[in-house]
Amino acid sequence: MNELQGAGVALVTPFNADGTVDYDTLGRLIDYQIEGGMDYLVSLGTTGETATLSAAERKQVWAFTSKHVNKRVPLVAGIGGNHTQEIVEQIKAFDVLDYVAILSVSPYYNKPTQEGIYQHYKAIAEASKLPIILYNVPGRTGSNILPATTIRLAKDFKNIVATKEASGSFAQFSEILRDKPEDFLLISGDDPITLPMMAMGAAGIISVVANAYPNKVSALSHLCQEGNFTEARSIHLELLKAIDLCFIEGNPAGVKYIMKQKGLGEDHLRLPLVPVGKATQDAINAEIQLLG
After folding, report:
1. Would the N or C end of the chain have less CB density within 10 A of its end CB?
2. Catalytic residue among 32, 108, 118, 164
3. Under 8 Å CB-to-CB from 10, ≥6 apart: which residues?
4. DSSP secondary-structure letter at 217?
5. Per the domain annotation, does 276 fall within a domain?
6. Which residue positions hold the site described L-lysine inhibitor binding (predicted)?
7. Which residues have C-beta within 8 Å of that of residue 75, sequence separation ≥ 6?
8. What are the tens digits of pLDDT across the range 70-109?
9. Domain at 138, CATH number
10. Does residue 113 fall inside a structural domain?
11. Nearest-5° Cα angle at 64, 80 to 53
């Protein structure tokens, strides 16, 4: 899956003040990402507030994104949740359009066993016409995909091609890199540890902060691919405070406010998410001035 090497962005979903999807801003955001050097785009990952979109809205966003991108970069669709059969039906009904893979988050809230996680992804893999990227984010799902389960899935299903890892465990990353099939990809799912993960052998990043700073994230990722960790470290350190502010009051509230201040759209969100508070706004404004 060469399409999944390097810098990917988990696109936010822009909304109008009345809560409808703002397609004009989404189009501009897509162009901004491609012009900023991003290698691929993820449409409706968890950063896209996908859980708050209806089935009809999701279909419209995927179709719009595909048409607007017009094959300029590869596309990944986010289809995941904690109701396995419902996800299987969504995947079966998905019009693949110009998408190259599906990113599917591990079931949240249910806290399944490792066997339950395996059977969940087994059902998805058997239903999908596209390659699958696992997404392990224990801080949000309440359960961890252990390395043994990741490797079991990678070896048992040829169309499970990568994992987006946001566990924060370098011991876990090491086990995956040691035991995975040669062509199976480890992808960073956590902006602040992209550089060390890529130094270990990760293929790249699916980034949140790239919504606001695609040029910096793509440069960091590409420098890491080249083995130029000295220059990559400078960008990594430069971005750390902005990354922290993206998540201090929840994702994507922070990055949407940064984008608003950069003239990239408004910071409208759908409940239960709300815009960041005054203290975080002030901190973001100060950091934007430093980053330029």
Report:
1. C
2. 164
3. 42, 45, 46, 47, 48, 78, 206, 207, 208, 211
4. H
5. no
6. 51, 82, 86, 108
7. 40, 41, 42, 43, 65, 66, 69, 97, 98, 99, 100
8. 999 999 999 999 999 999 999 999 987 899 999 999 999 9
9. 3.20.20.70
10. yes
11. 40
How many domains are contained in the chain? 1
Look at residue 267 and tell me if it is in a domain.
no
Active site residue 109: no
Per the structure block, which two tokens stand in for 288?
């934007």
Does any domain span residue 281? no
Q: Cβ(276)–Cβ(260) under 8 Å?
A: no
Active-site hit among 135, 216, 256, 257: 135
Question: What are the structure tokens assigned to 36, written together?
Answer: 């900023």
CB contact at 8 A, 11 and 42: yes
Query: Distance between CA 262 and CA 2 in Å, rounded?
Result: 32
- Partnered with residue 206 across adjacent β-strands are 8
Query: What pLDDT is attached to residue 292?
Result: 79
Using CA atoms of 191, 252, 185, 60 in order, give the dihedral in degrees to the nearest 10: -150
Helices (H), 187-228: 194-200, 214-226
Q: Is 160 a known ligand-binding residue?
A: no
Please name the residue that has the structure tokens 């990809």.
185
Strands 6-10 and 204-207: parallel
Which structural domain, as residue segments, surrounds residue 164?
Answer: 2-226
Instruction: Give the whole-number percent of the chain exceeding pLDDT 90.
Output: 98
Instruction: Examine the residue annotation and report whether 164 is marked as an active-site residue of this protein.
Output: yes
What is the rounded average pLDDT for all residues in the chain? 97
Residue 13 marked in a binding site: no
